[in-house]
Write a structure and sequence with these properties.
By secondary structure, the chain is of the alpha/beta class. It has two domains: about 160 residues, Rossmann fold, CATH 3.40.50.10170; about 140 residues, 2-Layer Sandwich (Hypothetical Protein Tm841, Chain: A,domain 3), CATH 3.30.1180. About 35% of the residues lie in helices and about 20% in strands. Strands 9-11-10-8-14-12-13 form a seven-stranded mixed beta sheet, with helices on both faces. The longest helix is centred in the middle third of the chain and has 15 residues.
Length: about 300
């Protein structure tokens, strides 16, 4: 039997995990001197309280999971005679997967007949969530691990995610985004447009002054992905900014079907910046892999 795993940095909640059959790995973060494990230390994410804390000036940090913790998640599955497929957030954004590799090496030596598969979504938050849901659908349809992994080799790079933030301090603090000017941009009301590239890294690809222009820029990037975008799932998300995501949804509906637009709140372990809106369109997985213009674009850093 194949058992699916994902983590909280993909914005998967326990409800979504249950729907698709995923085991959920809790990615810890530290805030105000306390380490928190999402959906272990709390059952439901209190977004308002969390983002009020951030707006008050507290800057959270993330931390890696230990080798022993990974073994604790994976060994019961192997001991039960099952294989694992782990769909995770971008390896380029963390050192935690070095610990995962060590854990898997230990376990596969102990259980040599078992198989461990992993798929790097090359994203985080809803960029990963869209892929997790797509793979969950394939799993429920009876696809094998080999078939899903083969699919991911071409299709992961067809998922795109764009977003912006009101406050650059959180991006600078995380050190995860290249090309940001920092404090002055925040003071001037500059909203950087951030993109997840083919390496699974966040890069700044443009800037707009004001929220309305930033939202319109997100929509324009989505339109560039292809004429058939309306047939694919689009996920929008926010960090305690529902009015912004509503505005984004209204603009998306000028060319996308309402039924294909899903909304989410970014999880605490991925959200270290308040008041942002994110648009994440599903790629054109129905197109030939020769349609290279539909793959994630490579932008130069522009800020």
């Amino acid at each position: 039997m194949l058992v699916l795993f994902t983590d909280t940095d993909t914005d998967v909640t326990p409800a979504v995990a249950e729907k698709y059959g995923y085991h959920l790995i809790s990615m810890p973060y530290s805030i105000d001197g306390k380490t928190v494990y999402p959906y272990v230390d709390f059952k439901e994410f209190d977004a308002k309280t969390f983002y009020d804390t951030l707006r008050g000036g507290v800057l959270p940090n993330t931390s890696a999971i230990s080798v022993e913790s990974y073994i604790g998640y994976f060994e019961p599955v192997f001991a039960n005679g099952d294989d694992i497929l782990y769909v995770h957030f971008s390896r380029s954004m963390t050192a935690t997967f070095d610990n995962m590799d060590k854990a898997v090496e230990t376990l596969t030596a102990k259980y040599p007949e078992r198989k461990f598969y992993s798929i790097d979504t090359k994203g985080i938050t809803i960029g990963s969530l869209n892929i997790v849901m797509e793979i969950g659908d394939m799993y429920k349809d009876g696809k094998t691990a080999d078939e899903i992994v083969e699919w991911s080799k071409t299709e992961v790079d067809r998922f795109a995610v764009y977003f912006f933030s009101d406050d650059l301090r959180f991006f600078k603090h995380s050190g995860r985004v290249s090309g940001l000017a920092g404090t002055m941009g925040t003071l001037l009301g500059i909203r950087p447009i951030i993109y997840m590239n083919e390496e699974g890294k966040m890069v700044s690809i443009g800037k707009e002054k004001g929220r309305a222009k930033a939202i319109s820029r997100l929509v324009e990037y989505v339109k560039e992905l292809g004429d058939d975008i309306e047939s694919h799932r689009i996920i929008t998300a926010h960090t305690d900014a529902p009015e912004l995501v509503d505005q984004l949804g209204d603009e998306l509906m000028s060319f996308a079907r309402r039924s294909r637009i899903k909304n989410s709140t970014s999880s605490p372990s991925t959200s270290t910046r308040p008041r942002e809106a994110i648009a994440d369109p599903t790629p054109s997985e129905c197109l030939s892999t020769q349609n290279t213009d539909k793959k994630r674009k490579q932008y130069e850093d522009r800020i």
